[in-house]
Amino acid sequence: MALQVYTASLLKEGLVAYLCLEDGLPSWTPEIGQATAMDDGSVESLKIAAEKSERDNIIVAPYAIDVVNSDGGWVAATKREQIRASGPTIVLPRDNAANASERAGRKAA
Questions:
Q1: Torsions phi, psi of 45, nearest 5?
Q2: For 24, phi and psi rounded to 5 degrees?
Q3: CA gap 56, 66 in Å, rounded
Q4: Cβ-based neighbours of 103, under 8 Å, separated by 6 or more
Q5: Is 108 helix (H, G, I), strand (E, B) or coil?
């Protein structure tokens, strides 16, 4: 039976987040390994909590994803969600500029 967690984007920051339920109270974390995972038969409670968070303008566009258990906690089952959880797979232009400045600083020193 597949396990699932709920994911969304935080409305203020735009960051990827995962739903945690502790004693029935929802919170959102950027760490997929800390998310609350449930099987297909119990995932409805996660859906209800995620939809409430969306109505409260905490997150946008929640949806369930399949996860597998690993040594470090939950890992997304699909490559798409693994990339979404860990960030871009390329160096972004802004990162290139920061790296160039850092290299220039090292040469000057």
A1: -65, -35
A2: 80, -5
A3: 25
A4: none
A5: helix
* Predicted model pTM: 0.80
CB 41 within 8 A of CB 75: no
Q: What is the pLDDT along the chain (109 residues), one digit of tens a residue?
A: 689 999 999 999 999 999 999 998 999 999 999 999 999 888 999 999 999 999 999 999 999 999 999 887 899 999 999 999 998 888 888 766 666 767 677 666 5
How far apart, in whole angstroms, are the C-alpha atoms of residue 101 and residue 109? 12
> Tokens 């905490």 correspond to what residue?
58
DSSP 1: -
Task: Give the model's pLDDT for residue 107.
Answer: 65
The answer to whether the beta carbons of residues 49 and 19 sit under 8 Å apart is yes
**DSSP alpha helices (H): ranges in 1-109?**
44-55, 79-86, 93-108
Residue 74 amino acid letter? W
